[in-house]
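Make up an example, fold above all:
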Amino acid sequence: MNYIEPQISKSAFHCPLCGTFAHMRWFGFGRNHSPRPYTEAECSRCGESSLWRIEETEENEVGHIVPSGGTMLFPDTGIAPLPEPDMPDDVKTDYEEAARISAKSPRGAAALLRLGLQKLCKHLGKNGENINSDIRSLSEDKILPPMVIKVADTVRITGNNAVHPGEMSEEDFDHVSSKLFDLLNFIVKKAITEPKELETLYQKVPEKPRVSAEEQDAKRRAKNT
């Protein structure tokens, strides 16, 4: 399903601690019967809680004052999706730093995500120097679908402008950078996770039919060349 980002008072979203879409139970804080400007969301899946500072309130349909705007204080990971488990460690470092600063600095997050994509291309066998050519090469090698080229161009353009501003507005950065997290996760899933899962499935096939299939594939390749 589509990623539902954490938001104060929302009844369900993807938990920033376990990454699962789950129902949230909200609890307020008080001192001497006086409410404090903090609230926590307990995940029904993992049982852990995120901590939020209340910055705006509104009156609901039954006349109660409820939080309507705020900032997540814990975990300090931002509201981006969690990185894919198979994401390389150095790429994950940039991804997580971008997530932490995305709300305050979309420009900085965009630059970090572009750097992370460069590193990811190197992990996938490219030189990592030109994102444009690397992504096209990965598509030509059928490692990534062609549509990724159009989406990845956004990372390249946004990243360049993050360092050399002039063409995109702050509103553009805010909108685009929030989508780039999904792109990196998608590339990891398509280029690393899915091939690994297929290889695991293939190794479960009995040896005799597996060897036979490999021999037939080798004959087809030889015939085509």
